[in-house]
Amino acid sequence: MSDTLVISIDAMGGDNAPEAIIEGVALAAKKHPNVFFFLYGDEERLTPLIGQYGLSDDRYKIHHTTAVVKADDKPSVAIRSGRESSMWKAIMSVRNGYAKAVVSAGNTGALMAMSKICLGTLAGIDRPAIAAILPTLTGQCVALDLGANAECNSQNLVEFAIMGDVFYRIMFGEENPSVGLLNIGSEETKGREEIREAATVLKGFGDKINFHGFVEGNDIALGTTKVVVSDGFSGNVALKTIEGTAKFITTSLKDLVRKSVVSKIGFALALPALRKLKKKMDPRVYNGAMFLGLNGVSVKSHGGADAFAFSCAVSAAINLAQNDLCMRIKQELEHVLDYASAEDKSR
Questions:
Q1: Which CATH number fits domain 1-121+293-299+318-323: 3.40.50.300, 1.20.120.530, 3.90.1150.10, 3.40.718.10?
Q2: Do domains 1-121+293-299+318-323 and 126-292 have the same CATH topology?
Q3: Can you give the residue ranges of every domain in the chain?
Q4: Which fold has domain 126-292?
Q5: 3 state SS for the chain
Q6: Cα separation of 17 and 105, whole Å?
Q7: Per-position pLDDT tens, the chain of length 347
């Protein structure tokens, strides 16, 4: 076990738990042979599923608990009454050093609140942020904050930019990704005061952060920058708009295809290209939002995730744990701030 990476799983969280969770873990186990899983949940329900999906006995350990955080529980209620829940216990295994990351498809607010209480925030980080990977015309981008902080000051936005930069480099192995601040226009005079102040600070970091400047909503899907930074209110609205637009396009396309024989023939001819597009835009591939800024890796899977989607969230958690995300954020924050301080003194 000493050389094995341990990932903690809230096996009872999510709309399709525990079936999709266990199947997803089994898929992830095949992809990552050196990972061991702590499964927190009802042993009576989990055991037959483990046999059904072929998870080897040497790849997991069940930690029995029947308590579950409900999807509609308020974070405050979950914290007060959920200390015996599968979610709380899974997070605590990371805090106590037994696991390197936790993955849950359960209640987002409860997971965020519990993770913050159990794991704490990294030194130098005022607030954690929700970050996710989105498909773009040029590949993928990291967007944050997507809902953890409705209101942010300039310091928060600067911290988000640094964390997003590290997150992108770990996930995609690309150095010096471009970073943009989401705004209502690209002009320097546009936007609220805190956004303009954050832009001024980021410019002062020189080549330590590849700051592009302001980006608008349409720039997210265009892939204008690799990292898009915003407050949680704007980020969540942008995310839901993108998701709604994607659903609108796919539903409209299906309806048009059904209307005539010619449409069906055209659809058949275009099927190979459409399959490639579907694969690129498949939201399951990008499943797994990360709570950046915590003193531990906590990954939120979509509540309605199927087994494949959940396995992708688990893979993301494994990648972040293997690359020591928290330490790298801490080091990068210190490095960038030291550079900025030295620059100020030299002026």
A1: 3.40.718.10
A2: yes
A3: 1-121+293-299+318-323, 126-292
A4: Isopropylmalate Dehydrogenase (3.40.718)
A5: CCCCEEEEEECCCCCCCCHHHHHHHHHHHHHCCCEEEEEEECHHHHHHHHHHCCCCHHHEEEEECCECCCCCCCHHHHHHHCCCEHHHHHHHHHHCCCCCEEEECCCHHHHHHHHHHHHCECCCCCCCEEEEEEEECCEEEEEECCCCCCCCCHHHHHHHHHHHHHHHHHHHCCCCCEEEEECCCCCCCCCCHHHHHHHHHHHCCHHHCEEEEEECHHHHHHCCCCEEECCHHHHHHHHHHHHHHHHHHHHHHHHHHCCCHHHHHHHHHHHHHHHHHHHHHCCCCCCCEEEECECCEEEECCCCCCHHHHHHHHHHHHHHHHCCHHHHHHHHHHHHHHHHHHHHHHC
A6: 8
A7: 457 899 999 999 999 999 999 999 999 999 999 999 999 999 999 999 999 999 999 999 999 999 999 999 999 999 999 999 999 999 999 999 999 999 999 999 999 999 999 999 998 899 999 999 999 999 999 999 999 899 999 999 999 999 999 999 999 988 899 999 999 998 888 889 999 999 999 998 888 899 999 999 999 999 999 999 999 999 999 988 888 888 888 788 788 878 788 778 877 777 787 777 767 767 788 888 999 999 999 999 999 999 999 999 999 999 999 999 999 898 888 888 766 555 555 55
Residue matched to tokens 């002009």: 187
Amino acid at 224: T
